[in-house]
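Reopening this ticket.

The earlier resolution said the output was attached, but the attachment link was broken on my side. Pasting everything inline this time so it's all in one place.
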Amino acid sequence: MWSMATSNRHLSGIRHLVYGLNPLITLLRARGVAVEPLLSAANLKSHALTNPEYEITPAQELTFTGLALDALQSPGIGLEMGPRYHLSAYGVLGLAIMTSANLKQALQTVFDNVMLTWTYFGLQLRAERDVATFTMARERDLGRCFRYMCDRGLSATYTIFTEALGERLPLRRASFMHERPDALQPYDALFGCPIAFCAPANELVFDEAWLYRPLAQSEASTHRIFAEQCRRISSRLGTGGGFAEIVRYNLVRDVAEICSLDQLADKMSLTARTVQRKLAQEHTSFKQLLEEVRRNLALEYLANSRLAVADIAARLGYSDAAGFNHAFRRWLGCPPGTYRRQAAATAQRHQEETT
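Inline output:
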């Protein structure tokens, strides 16, 4: 058995390049949605889209994506978006993937330059008994973007695999963290394998031998040039700030157990005063981050699981459902049950419109 994975060090300064929004923006415009107001609401300028070096924060990207999902009113749009992320959409990273010797080297290149992929999941590849498993595990709260990011992430990955190989990769299984949707045909058509939902992580499972098959456009000397360019860009994106993202990562992993500043500081082997100071330097606080993480995870659970409200409250660290209900009303102006029914109605309406 062997494995390789992305390093959590990228959490110290998550920033992505803005052109990763282009496939979604193209779809929005094709469907007659005005993009500029959404960009403005996310504090993004239209001219930034033409600058390949323009960097955006998670807050900007997730705000824009959430507003786009609201405008499209299509809960399953992530599965449609993933195949739009062709190798060419990744710029120099796409070229480095394309010219790799095989799929294993291509994935190592991705893992070394994860911030060039626009993912908020932790990536891992492991092999055991001739079976390879590519995993995308939760590392950040994604709120109403959760299902979209799961679907987009796995479908984009499968698109990359297929394009790099020059042929369709036969899968043994594909697994998704979100709830089973009513419409399964799009998943069957794209992946062509058994599909599982409510899984611990998003996964693609296939025969290990495919990792060593030469890629269609493999070229060792060219790959080295592109890989070095990726390294330089990733190094720039990984510098500066980001302590708040480390705190957020710890909260997402253990929010039921970390309900106070002292508990967080103890987990991070820091003093509470040090945590306060570092967060203040980034214009935020423990209380604000805890509130954001709880809110976003609540939206994920309500829209993408059948967990009872009391169980969600417990997972978020509330002593009872009443406390969670009160907080949720403050966030969205309605009780959790109402939000869940509205999300289900939207999904049902879209299903009826597309069948």
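Reporter confirms the inline version is readable. The chain has two domains: 2-237, 243-353. Residues 18 and 55 are 6 Å apart (CA to CA).
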